[in-house]
Fold this sequence. Notes:
By secondary structure, the protein is an alpha+beta fold. It has helices at residues 33-42, 71-77, 115-128, 130-144, and strands at 22-26, 29-32, 49-53, 66-70, 101-106, 109-114. Helix content is 32%, strand content 21%. 14% of the residues are buried.
Amino acid sequence: MSTVDSACWIWLGATDQAGYGRVYPKPGKPRGYHRVVWKELNGHIDQNMDLHHLCENKRCYNPKHLLPVGRVAHMYIHSGGYTWRGKNKCRRGHPLTVGNIRVRFSKGYPMRVCHVCENIKRAAWRKENRDHCRKQLRDWRARNVH
């Protein structure tokens, strides 16, 4: 992790449940204050990018402490973000590496999901619901194929 030479700029206003500074530039549209400052000073940042706090202070909005990173990379940096902090394996023992992590959102916050476990769960659902899915496909074809 990089060292941070300058002092944090601490947001003293409202924060969200995760502890990030929150502002409402448009009614009903909350934004992280660090993202607002970054956009003003450095230009647009893609919605799929996170701003990683090099200082690890969620209320800091000093742009020298912020690093734009992809969402999966950000989750990997934090080794689990909100739900699995510090773990390097999922509940079933699969390694949580960059290639095996998928990001899902729960209540608006990103959480990482084991890709292997998701594939197993999806295959089990398909097997369990195969007849139902086949019937729906047959019905759809009967209605739409002339």
